[in-house]
Amino acid sequence: MGPIGMPEMIMIFVVVLLLFGAKKLPELARGIGKSMGEFKKARDDFEREITRGEGEAKVKDAPGKESRDA
To answer: Is 70 a domain residue?
Structure first.
């Protein structure tokens, strides 16, 4: 099964149009856009946090740096 082609996209659009109506489509698209933006922001924050945590772990475990926790 390959990627979704143009005929499939048109069929999906027609089904969505029939389900939600022409007046609700802009509102639906706006909501999906906002959701995708929030998801991207959360993903970027998560990646930044992971990268920062890895950097702190490397500095903490670096040779020549003794931990005073022991």
So the answer is: no
Do the domain assignments include residue 4?
no
DSSP the chain: -----HHHHHHHHHHHHHHH-TTTHHHHHHHHHHHHHHHHHHHHHHHHHHHHHHHHHHHHT-TT---S--
- pTM (two decimals): 0.53
Per-residue pLDDT of the chain (70 residues; tens, 9 = 90+): 678 899 998 999 889 888 888 888 889 889 999 999 999 999 999 999 998 888 777 777 766 655 555 4
Domain that holds residue 32: 23-60
